[in-house]
Design goal:
Elements (H helix, E strand, L loop, with lengths): L3 E2 H7 L5 H9 L3 E3 L2 E2 L6 E2 L5 E3 L2 E2 L8 E6 L16 H4 L8 E3 L7 E7 L2 H8 L7 E8 L4 H5 L5 E3 L2 E3 L3 E8 L2 E8 L6 H8 L3 E10 L2 E2 L8 E3 L2 H8 L8
Parallel strand pairs: 9-15
Antiparallel strand pairs: 1-4, 2-3, 2-5, 5-6, 7-9, 7-17, 8-9, 10-14, 10-15, 11-12, 13-14, 15-16
Helix pairs in contact: 1-2
Length: 243
């Protein structure tokens, strides 16, 4: 019988994050099979009866995934220390509790994947997946073919090395240029830092794809569930062992 940590089970049921579940346990708010739980490391199975704050824990949500067009001005976080609006504040009220796959900064927009499964979210974020993320970037600058081509071998900026990037100039209009960039690492503010290294300022950054999942015709703030058929075809063995 498969067992997992009780804090993880509570999070999988969609009640709260794993960190918040650990806090509830330490506050004495969690009961397992009639006994008070004192450590988040307690192991449980699907047969165990868990009560949180006096209410029986619901069964975990079925695995589901959505494509979401994150608008500019929203934070990809369940809570923000600066009290800025988050994507989770903007999602439809009838949506189950979901977890984001990766992030986009406040000023960026485009594709964010959302899922009911924390385990799947972690799998999809791993660099070992080798998934490409494609972006359209508008900059103030006049990039040369040699500058863009140099990114194919990676680049080090302020002591941080960024892996190979495919960059193609789509259009130059005066001092503004549109570039399509494809990368696999997706380090924090990677594109913005590389553009700044060349002396170009980013005025718009849109994520078009994350692995096999495409932004498509979604408009800012729009959300669309991924069909089970596409999940099976796109993720295959990645779905094993997740819920």
């Amino acid at each position: 019988m498969t067992k997992e940590r009780i804090a993880k089970a509570i999070a999988h049921a969609g009640l709260c994050s794993r960190r918040d579940a650990e806090k509830l346990i330490l506050e004495g708010q969690v009961i397992l099979n009639g006994a008070l739980v004192t450590t988040p490391a307690t192991l449980v199975s699907a047969e165990d009866k868990i009560v949180v704050k006096g209410m029986p824990l619901a069964k975990p949500e079925a695995l589901r995934v959505w494509r979401y067009y994150k608008p500019v001005g929203l934070v990809v976080s369940h809570r923000d220390e600066k009290n800025r609006p988050t994507i989770f504040d903007a999602l439809p009220s009838d949506l189950p509790r979901v977890i984001s796959v990766g992030r986009l900064d406040l000023s960026s927009e485009g594709l964010i994947l959302l899922t009911t499964s924390g385990a799947l979210s972690r799998k999809l974020e791993l660099p070992s997946t080798g998934w490409k993320r494609r972006y359209r970037v508008r900059i103030y600058g006049t990039p040369t073919p040699d500058q863009l081509s140099s990114l194919k071998s990676g680049i080090t900026v302020e002591g941080i090395h960024y892996g190979p990037i495919e960059a193609q100039l789509d259009r130059q209009q005066g001092h503004n240029a549109w570039i399509t960039m494809t990368l696999t690492e997706g380090k924090n503010r990677e594109i913005r830092k590389i553009m700044q290294h060349f002396g170009w300022s980013v005025s718009r950054l849109i994520r078009l794809s994350y692995g096999p999942f495409l932004l498509g015709n979604l408009t800012p703030g729009e959300i669309s569930e991924v069909s089970k058929k596409m999940l099976r075809e796109s993720l295959g063995k990645m779905l094993e062992g997740v819920q």
